[in-house]
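Input sequence (446 aa), recorded before submission:
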Amino acid sequence: MSDSQPSTGILLPPLRLERGAARASGRAWAHYAPWQRWVYLAILFSVATANYFDYFILSVLLDPIKQEFHISDTMLGLLSGVCFALIYSAATLPFARWADRGNRRTVITLALTGWSLMTMACGLAQSFWQLALARFGVGAFEPGALPPAQSLVADYFPPERRGTALSILTNGGSAAGWLVGVGFGGYVAASHGWRAAFVLAGFLSLALALVTRLTLPEPRAAVDFSGGSSRSESMRDALASLRRKRSFVWALSGLALYTVFAYGVMMFVPSFLERSFHASLEQVSVIWGSIMSAANIVGAVVGGMLADRLSRRDVRWYAWVAAIGCALAFPLYLLAFSARSLWTFIGIEFLAEWTLSMGVPMVFAVALAVSGSHRRATASAVMWCAIALLGTNLGPLLVGGVSDALRAAYGEESLRYALLAIVGFLPPAAAACYWASRSMLQELEN
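Predicted structure, token format:
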């Protein structure tokens, strides 16, 4: 099926409404029953889980890879950050403009197929540089998933339900991907080696591509959002429009600062547990991975529902909830990385992750509320590009570099102090999210 043909999904066709009124209103969500929306969200949730699974599985494999290829923590930071982030950033906007103009289901399916094959290639690598090249390939395809998925969620769900849906997709998918990547991936690596974990991750994601192709509908087949403006607006004009929206710029800044912290922590906490607490790979993957994923999933659902309820009174609550989450997590993470026992660390980090997962996903709700329907994928892509350039790229590199610099003085504990240092990015992230609220009311756009 070409991108210009109607696309409704062969398993779950949309409701039959009066098409003239529906097309004119741009209310895409009116074409779907509530149960259909949640089925579509479940499919997109699976795509997000696969996206994060193929990314986070590397975190639990860093030490086995280090031992086999005899590389430093800085090189591990490059592998988990720069090798992925540079090509990810370059590919993000082209994928997003295609998604804003064409069939988002096709974009997601192609991207899912591509990164699955490249993840399997990681398992076949026989040297560090072959592995780095394969990770480069993963980064080339993954931008085609989450921005179009978030754009579709904004069309499947009415505005007063988007916070919950976006939170489930973004943080819930991240948590589930982390659980499968760190938990199941770690178990496979412990039993069959790190290469088998990569191959299995790619195979499972590849199977999901067929499900996506056969089930997801494209709302643009039934609804005219912008009278064709999405096809006439250039990328330069779309980016200029977003740059003029102060709420979007502040939300973007807050997310970028947060992800420097988040991705540095996510990549190196498994190694921190192994070095400072002498935790086994099975303990890291099964116990810690499961508990942290539970905190993220439950926090995402509760935070999304709370933000949706509060936003009916004032839409700025989306930004305020994000700011509060970052502010409260700051002291909790300082306590967690100062802990001297494994279970004390896990208990405090559970509270910190719960707090962050309740708030941070609302940054995307802010961005999609002010971006306009015909540039939502572009807005989402700009945010994911910032995540890649600053979070994915800089976060692991900073933690790895600081850890190496402190190793002579602190030995194996150097990673603890590197993680404590990265927590300093949370207060400015909270401030930026708060400032995003100040111009939201004037910049809202359907």
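Checked by second reader. The first helix runs from residue 19 to 25.
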